[in-house]
Amino acid sequence: MASTSDIRKGLCIRYNNDIYKIIEFLHVKPGKGPAFVRTKLKSVSSGKVLDNTFSGGSKIEDVRVETRSYQFLYAEGENYHFMNTDDYNQITLQESSLDAPDLLKEGEVVTILFNTEDSMPLSVDMPASVILEVTYAEPGVKGNTATNATKPAKVETGATINVPLFINEGDKIKIDTEKGAYMERVKE
Question: Boundaries of each Elongation factor P C-terminal domain copy (predicted)?
Fold first, then answer.
């Protein structure tokens, strides 16, 4: 058993007869009254996200997990196929267990969390950033840069990302997988 002081991003807990992964949390200590923790929980079985508030010091049941590196092979509809980089065993996961499936490129190495009790895969942790090639971008209009102007660009995985006006087709860009936002242009 853990308490609310052990809450951190990525922690898997058992709550309402399901296993949830904490994707956001905020410890709040108001001037009047007891402290509490606001959390955003994502169900690892259904992918549903819910907001919950735990009162300070309350007990939560954490789930022991182990992490393994897997390489993304290909997607087939809602199913995503991964291969263990150590023993080459393959597993198939549903799209709902991925945080950012539209940024996942074939050959990308990800970390998959497994429940140690029954060895069931819980969720997929993407790398902090990915480098993708821009396949389509409107040409930037010169002189249209009074403020931090952006335009939509399509990357090789099919995702659409807002990028600065100087990004063109064929450029490689670094994308923050957590926010799905442009970080920088990558030179070869």
Answer: 130-185
End residue of a domain, out of 74, 101, 125: 125
Query: For 40-93, how does the pLDDT look when each residue is reduced to its tens digit (9 = 90+)?
Result: 998 887 778 899 999 888 888 888 888 889 999 998 888 999 999 889 889 998
End residue of a domain, out of 85, 110, 125:
125
Q: Residue 120 is which amino acid?
A: M
Same domain, 74 and 99: yes
Pairing between β-strand 160-164 and β-strand 150-155 as defined by DSSP bridges? antiparallel
Gap between the Cα atoms of 68 and 126, Å rounded: 12
Structural domain harbouring 100: 65-125
Q: Would you say the pTM of this structure is higher than 0.90? A: no
Residue 150's Cβ-side half-sphere holds a number of Cα atoms within 13 Å equal to 10
Partners of 18 in the beta sheet?
15
Measured at the CA of 54, the angle between CA 48 and CA 57, to 5 degrees, comes to 145
Residue type for position 186: V
CB contact burial 100-138 (16+ within 10 A = b; e otherwise): bbebbeeebebebbbbeeeeebbbbebeebbebebeebe
Closest listed residue to residue 99, CA positions, set 119, 120, 127: 127
